[in-house]
């Protein structure tokens, strides 16, 4: 063993052999491309090199960003192993270890800053940049999604392995910050450099979603799918979810349901991130009055096992979708109780639960019961602060989607017209928005 070796981007790795470094590089490349299986790769390295601090820190970061309590025991093991190796770790590795320790303690904001500061000190540390941005996403930090990557861009060029992925990360940040032209250009360059880069594909899809370019979005995802889908594509379900949203915008409900059946549900909904997409799609379709058959069953049953977690408020909102849509009042009460407990606690999720999570789950529960006035009272004030519990603009739109439908069902012409006007301002050609407008036009005007 040597005191330090260097990875393929020039970052120091302590107490490592060349084989260990190369194995860690493979795991990092799998994660940056969202391809299977970075956990398998790092576990193989750690089996031969259990004293590799950066290996344990990477494993912990990977598990943390699943945002799923089901993985917390494994996360705790990795954090403990990394912290035990802290005395012999270098400065970069200590930053990673501090980040995963903060995450495990419930301080997601501190975790983001540890990864962010590590990336500033080691700007070619792709994992630090990626995990910081993912955590910014969980926190709803739209401008930091952009700026976290912009900080390190001057240190990257075509000679650095993974340069395309940095462009893809920047593209997503630019999109969430509202700079659609630059976002699309960076995302397309990312995908040109490596068509497997599902995050870069995703960034361009987000641009098209925000601009109401549904036909282009469908073509973009279909045209790039061969490289990012299939057994190796860990992010496929989410990109297919975006394609389903484009179909919904065009009124092509059956196409969206087919994607649910054939692609989005393909992983069996074993992870929270997959369950979020499954619930979000079915909720949108059902809210528009369409029958989704028995498709809620698998989503509901997997969320039911997490209904008491109160682990991440954004997830809790999607648990409530499954409970409210299926009329499972007992599960709904469990979700509300879990979010109340979380809100009374400490840490980042306590703030999220108080500010957004609790009114969101109560609002969706009210909608499911047909109590549309109550749903609107709870959901409308969230519009300006929903970013506080994370997600993207496209994901958080489910709140406005539900409120718009609630206003139409309630028969409140003035409120429906106002909410639909917002949607039309952003997407004037959207068939879905035009349909809502047509439905609202049939409502009586209050005297």
Automatic annotation (TrEMBL):
Alphabetical list of Gene3D superfamilies matching this protein: Tetratricopeptide repeat domain
Family the entry assigns: Belongs to the TTC38 family.
Keywords in alphabetical order: Repeat, TPR repeat
Top-rank taxon, per record: Bacteria
Cross-referenced InterPro entries: TPR-like_helical_dom_sf, TTC38
Extent of the signal sequence: none
CDD domains: StaR_like
Protein name in the entry: Tetratricopeptide repeat protein 38
Record flagged with keyword Repeat: yes
PANTHER family according to UniProt: TETRATRICOPEPTIDE REPEAT PROTEIN 38 (PTHR16263:SF4)
Keyword rRNA processing: no
């Amino acid at each position: 063993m040597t005191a330090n070796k260097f990875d393929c981007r020039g970052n120091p790795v302590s107490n490592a052999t060349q084989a260990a470094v190369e194995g860690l590089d493979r795991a990092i490349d799998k994660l940056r491309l969202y391809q299977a299986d970075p956990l398998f790769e790092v576990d193989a390295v750690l089996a031969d090199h259990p004293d590799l601090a950066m290996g344990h820190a990477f494993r912990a970061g990977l598990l943390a960003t699943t945002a799923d309590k089901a993985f917390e025991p494994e996360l705790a093991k990795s954090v403990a192993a990394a912290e035990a190796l802290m005395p012999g770790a270098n400065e970069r590795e200590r930053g990673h270890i501090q980040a995963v320790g903060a995450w495990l303690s419930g301080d997601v904001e501190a975790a983001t800053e540890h990864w962010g500061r590590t990336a500033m000190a080691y700007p070619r540390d792709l994992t630090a940049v990626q995990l910081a941005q993912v955590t910014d996403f969980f926190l709803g930090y739209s401008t930091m999604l952009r700026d976290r990557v912009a900080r390190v861009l001057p240190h990257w060029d075509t000679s650095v392995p993974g340069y395309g992925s940095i462009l893809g990360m920047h593209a997503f940040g630019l999109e969430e910050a509202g700079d659609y032209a630059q976002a699309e250009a960076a995302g397309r360059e990312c995908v040109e450099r490596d068509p497997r880069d599902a995050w870069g594909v995703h960034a361009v899809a987000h641009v098209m979603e925000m601009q109401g370019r549904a036909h282009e979005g469908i073509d973009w995802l279909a045209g790039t799918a061969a490289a990012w889908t299939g057994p190796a594509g860990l992010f496929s379900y989410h990109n297919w979810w975006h394609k389903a949203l484009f179909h919904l915008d065009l009124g092509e409900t059956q196409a969206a349901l087919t994607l649910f059946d054939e692609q989005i549900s393909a992983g069996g909904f074993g992870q929270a991130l997959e369950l979020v997409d499954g619930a979000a799609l079915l909720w949108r379709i059902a809210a528009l009055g369409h029958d989704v058959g028995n498709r809620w069953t698998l989503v509901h049953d997997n969320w039911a096992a997490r209904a008491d977690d109160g682990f991440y408020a954004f997830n809790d909102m999607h648990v409530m979708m499954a409970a409210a849509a299926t009329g499972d009042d007992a599960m709904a009460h469990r979700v509300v109780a879990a979010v109340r407990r979380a809100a009374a606690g400490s840490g980042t999720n306590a703030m999220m639960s108080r500010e957004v999570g609790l009114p969101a789950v109560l609002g969706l529960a009210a909608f499911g019961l047909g109590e549309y006035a109550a749903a609107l009272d709870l959901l409308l004030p969230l519009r300006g602060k929903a970013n506080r519990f994370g997600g993207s603009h496209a994901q958080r739109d489910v709140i406005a989607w539900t409120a718009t439908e609630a206003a139409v069902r309630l028969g409140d012409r003035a409120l429906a017209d106002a909410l639909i006007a917002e949607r039309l301002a952003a997407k004037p050609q959207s068939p879905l928005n035009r349909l809502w407008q047509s439905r609202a036009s049939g409502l009586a005007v209050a005297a």
